[in-house]
């Protein structure tokens, strides 16, 4: 039996990953959540080092995937202590505990470790984060790689996938404003303003789950991937372009206005396109076209005019 611990199984990525891994014959998945208890998952606060050590000792996994994090840039900016506790210190604690048991640790990081000025970025390009979130994730990468020789960092860009609320992903969080713009008449003049400056590569969480499962398979055959790898969708788009495609999928007549200069309070990079060549060279990867994937997401979580979700 090959045993994988998924830390942060209640999150956008964690749920997709547990769904993928649970289908593998001969694999056992142990999952943890924090504020959202789930059936078949342990509750674990990864800031509690003793609890983390006890969890790893008790479960003795062969591999650990850290999908828990504080990933909201604005929260990281305003609460750097929380960002550090989750994105740096907890990664070190988890990796040290896994290392003591000889377990492989995969930690998830972000394209925001780069400044977005010189894409595409290979895995060995020099990082230069612009905001507190990117800085904390970069420190977390270094904490992992300093703590264990049996560790790997997987950098990812903007995620979307099956959701339990519109705000869960920066892709689906556009839906309420798109729908509201379609509900107003042209005479009201209320179109939704969408960022048309930053170039993003939305990446589907079930595709990433396949990538991680393929990485885990290599570890299971004693060919563990170490160091830094990256995975990205290959369709560049601004939020404005994402909104147009969402409106098409929703079949609504949205009224959208492109915003060609950045307006975010938190500095964000322009284009952090991640080169996925290291994983591709290993035959790892899957990319579902955006228009196909987003229709799956919307079919499973249909818009009912409820902006509260
Ligand atoms: N979302 C994106 O667009 C994006 C882009 C690039 C990289 N990433 C990276 O991908 C990874 C997964 O992101 P995501 O979008 O799936 O995040 P998410 O939906 O915000 O989920 C965060 C997870 O962390 C858990 N968590 C929060 N505080 C915790 C604590 N104190 N102890 C234990 N667990 C705690 C949450 O548990 P509860 O919900 O149960 O509290 C949840 O399972 C992160 O490393 C993130 O930095 C995300």
Automatic annotation (TrEMBL):
Coiled coil regions, renumbered to chain: none
Cofactor: Mg(2+)
Gene Ontology terms for molecular function: dTDP-4-dehydrorhamnose reductase activity; methionine adenosyltransferase regulator activity
Pathway this chain belongs to: Carbohydrate biosynthesis; dTDP-L-rhamnose biosynthesis
Keywords, in A-Z order: NADP, Oxidoreductase
UniProt cross-references to Gene3D superfamilies, sorted A to Z: NAD(P)-binding Rossmann-like Domain
GO cellular component terms, semicolon-separated: methionine adenosyltransferase complex
RmlD-like substrate binding domain: residues covered: 3-300
Enzyme Commission number: 1.1.1.133
Catalyzed chemical reaction(s): dTDP-beta-L-rhamnose + NADP(+) = dTDP-4-dehydro-beta-L-rhamnose + NADPH + H(+)
Top enzyme category: oxidoreductase
Cofactor binding, per record: Binds 1 Mg(2+) ion per monomer.
GO BP field: dTDP-rhamnose biosynthetic process; S-adenosylmethionine biosynthetic process
Tree of life domain: Bacteria
Family stated for the protein in its record: Belongs to the dTDP-4-dehydrorhamnose reductase family.
Function: Catalyzes the reduction of dTDP-6-deoxy-L-lyxo-4-hexulose to yield dTDP-L-rhamnose.
Protein name: dTDP-4-dehydrorhamnose reductase
Organism phylogeny: Bacteria, Pseudomonadati, Pseudomonadota, Betaproteobacteria, Burkholderiales
